[in-house]
Amino acid sequence: MASIPIERHTPQTGDAYDGIVRLPADAMRTPAMIAQWDDLARQCNDPNPFFESWYLLPAIDALAGAGQVELACLFADGALAGLMPLARSGSYYGKPVPHLAAWSHPNAFCGLPLVAKGHERPFWRALFDALDRLPGLTAFLHLAELPGEGPMADALREVLAEQLRPSAIVVEAERAMLASQLSPEDYFVASMSGKKRKELRRQANRLAEEGELAFTRHSDTAEIAEWIEQFLALERAGWKGAQGSALGSADATAQLFRQALAGAAERGRLERLALTLDGRPIAMLANFITPPGAYSFKTAFDENFARYSPGVLLQRENLTLLARSDIAWCDSCAAADHPMIERIWRDKRRVTCTNIAIGGGLRRTLFRQLARIEARGQIREF
What is the pLDDT of residue 20? Predict the structure, then answer.
């Protein structure tokens, strides 16, 4: 990919902004820049583990070609205040429509830029102003997996309105979320009927008859490598492995999982849960802990024990997230209407894919035409 020529641009605000600059991913690998990046992640009102250093850099290494991803960074008083990975694409739904996108992949479940608290509006303003200066006919900016509510979403709507900048939500969905003031036990009682809770207790009792049943929970680096390999093997042994969609089905995604979980654990951003039978895991779960929120990243279970609902039993234990004072919500990272997680998690998070016009009058006219075509469901036909 040719270099994305994002200019250094200073937004007109009261803060001492150095502005948006474009950096290759390799420029962010120094200890000093990693430290700034990790510090930025801890300052976000809207956390996104998938754009943190320990996840994004391994993802770029494993899944992107050389030079395909660059980082749009906002600096304020010399410190990193915002970051978003960007990539060019020459097609949209298979049509020759060049555009920019916040770089993502199937194992990233949030597309929000990392932005320090209080810098949300300056980030969007500086980003759009910089992208407006791009040469050529880049038609729009595509932002996938954007939460519909929160400080970053509010700031985006306000900046779009103040700039009269055209935009369009092109995909919208809801997925399960955990967000409640109830205790874990009270939430469990409220979310599942007495009949379902009784059935789950019966399944747990029957499973315990098969051997010694135990839950384990870790938030450190102890035996992390062994845990990761057990997870990869457990997931690969099930239906995902049969379909070739398990993390361990490809070297690239297995590499990403290993490096990302190790990096998260080193920073205290990982919680690992497992349900074991005679010491062997039959259900496993990895949460990314990113206060004030969390992300339930990946789960797997032994399908030989499916009649005992080991995945649901583990999610029952996972409700202890509600007791944490530093966590207000947890995103399930699950598809809409997921049959397992929505048996317990009854809250919803709205997630959108949004296109935003960039450039001058010609490109904005093109954007409006494309938006009308897509609104009629004809984007694949033109």
Answer: 87
Q: Could you tell me which of 179, 115, 182 has the C-alpha nearest to residue 349?
A: 179
CA–CA separation, 375 vs 378, rounded Å? 7
Same domain, yes or no: 193 and 295: yes
Q: Which of 231, 323, 304 is nearest to 272 (CA)?
A: 231
In a domain, 152, yes or no: yes
Minimal CA–CA distance to 117: which of 174, 176, 47?
A: 47
What are the Cα distances from residue 75, in Å, to 20, 62, 126, 127? 7, 27, 10, 12
| 347 three-state secondary structure | strand
| Residue 215 forms part of a structural domain | yes
| Burial tier of 205 (Cβ tally within 10 Å: 0-12, 13-18, 19+) | exposed
Which residues span the domain enclosing 25? 17-173+351-375
The span from the CA of 53 to the CA of 61, in Å, is 12
Q: What is the DSSP letter of 273?
A: E
**Residue 251 placed within a domain:** yes
SS3 205: helix
Q: Say yes or no: 48 and 22 in one domain.
A: yes
**In terms of pTM, does the model score above 0.90?**
yes
* First CA to last CA distance, the chain: 26
- How far apart, in whole angstroms, are the C-alpha atoms of residue 227 and residue 381? 47
**pLDDT tens figures, 36-84:** 999 999 999 999 999 999 999 999 999 998 789 999 999 998 899 999 9
Instruction: Specify if 337 maps to a domain.
Output: no
**pLDDT tens per residue across span 269-324:** 999 999 999 999 999 999 999 999 999 999 999 999 999 999 999 999 999 999 99
